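[job 4471] stage=fold_predict status=RUNNING
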Amino acid sequence: MYRLWNYLFGWDYVIWENSVAQGVAKVQKYPDGKIGYWRYRATNVFDEIKDADQVIWLTCHPSKYLK
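[job 4471] inference complete, writing structure tokens
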């Protein structure tokens, strides 16, 4: 499903994981330079991606976002 959305819309996805849960989220880049994903959208938990090893990249290479 995520590869299809990547193909149709160009959206990139990552797999995130912590000690309690895991999931798939869409990578978002903001004008102020922040790159991250919404882990829990309903509770407004945004995780900024600062290191390529922080998440598993599903649809792109980390160098697309991290220089």
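[job 4471] summary: Residues 17 and 27 are 15 Å apart (CA to CA).
[job 4471] exit 0
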